[in-house]
Specification:
Blueprint: H1 4-20, E1 29-31, H2 33-41, E2 46-49, H3 53-57, E3 65-66, H4 69-72, E4 84-88, H5 93-104, E5 109-113
């Protein structure tokens, strides 16, 4: 029979393990622009841009799907829950909010690009 101390240690170890993997209580994974680029190059994700239409038109990741954050909840039916999504915005704040909305609606494979387009040093299209 496990004592309370051992049980607590197992819980702490599990939390530390999940956090070390980049998966916290949010249910999505934060990735750098370098990791995001690798996911895109390996065709592992659909890029979901949650900025405004104007921001998107000024330059976006090639083939990114635009759904502004303020429209996301009403357009969830346009997305496939079995897909993996890389969520992108200007700085990483709106994409984190969008990632929370997605994971809160049973989307399992969500990556939030930290730093957003401000840190994106790769190809863009207008």
């Amino acid at each position: 029979m496990m004592n309370r101390f051992t049980h607590l240690l197992l819980i702490i170890a599990a939390v530390v393990s999940l956090t070390a993997c980049g998966i916290g209580s949010e249910g999505y994974r934060n990735v750098s622009t370098e990791e995001a680029k690798a996911l895109i190059d390996n065709q592992e994700v659909v890029v979901l841009d949650v900025r405004t239409s104007q921001e998107y038109q000024e330059g976006h990741i090639p083939n990114a799907k635009l759904i502004p954050l303020q429209e996301l909840e009403n357009k969830l039916h346009n997305l496939n829950k079995d897909e993996s999504y890389l969520v992108v915005c200007r700085s990483g704040n709106r994409s984190a909010q969008a990632s929370e909305i997605l994971t809160g609606n049973s989307f399992a494979n969500i990556y939030n690009m930290t730093g957003g387009m401000n840190n994106w040093g790769y190809e863009i299209e207008n």
